[in-house]
Design brief:
By secondary structure, the protein is mainly α. It has one domain. Helices cover 32% and strands 5% of the residues. It has 6 helices and 4 strands. Strands 1-2 form a two-stranded antiparallel ribbon. A two-stranded antiparallel sheet has the order 3-4. Helix 2 crosses helix 4 and helix 2 packs antiparallel against helix 6. The longest helix is centred in the N-terminal third of the chain and has 24 residues. The chain is elongated and about 95 Å long. The relative contact order is 0.15. Bound molecules: protoporphyrin IX containing FE. Protoporphyrin IX containing FE binds next to helix 5.
Amino acid sequence: MTRRSGVAVRTSVVLVVALGVTLVAGCGGGSPLDNAPDIANPAGVRGQSLSFAYFQACVQPILVAPLAAPGAGGAPNTCASSGCHDSVNGTGGALRLAGQAAPVDLADAASTPEAVRATAMYRNFVSAQGMAIIGAPEQSLLLAKPRLANVLHGGGLIFERADDDNVRRIAYWIGHPMPQGQDEFSTASNALFTPADSRTGRCNP
Ligand code: HEM
């Protein structure tokens, strides 16, 4: 290696290193040997909830009713029945329901959120809410499956018409979530009933 080529090699090494440092500086500064910057991990923001009061008064009755399923030749089919969505021996995917769940008296002082969250009715609520895209009934499996709306359903066609009262109620529940920052027991549930009282009012719509 001649003296000239030696100089050329050293120069190009210096240039490459200089280029490397410049690039790294351009990508956020610091050297590649520095620790990675701390990752921001803000606390999770609570998503919106659906109404527990409306669920137990207006949706649960649909899920335990013998429905004349067009897909089964009109033979009555119950969503929460065994072999379907029963929470013990159902085969209905993640929608699991206790058909015998007792209604919770929300006016009872003993019905604290913790106490209600330990009930079978609450587990039904959570499972059904899990099949909903909150605020978007049309995109929710809870309606798409029994309506065979671009999906297959192990239980076949349950609701033929979009204006079926049961469909309208389930859609109303999903389409009227509790205000952001309020939980499933919010008094905003009263507005989902007429008169606006979840204990005495009729289920909207
Ligand atoms: C109103 C009544 C009903 C509703 C709202 C409903 C809703 C649903 C939903 C949301 C799923 C998807 C679960 C998942 O993705 O994990 C599903 C699945 C299933 N359902 Fe139903 N269902 C109803 C009635 C029935 C009935 C009566 C039967 C039985 C005859 C049944 C049998 C099944 C089965 C076997 C599956 C799992 C296979 C699949 O994903 O399609 N369902 N149903």
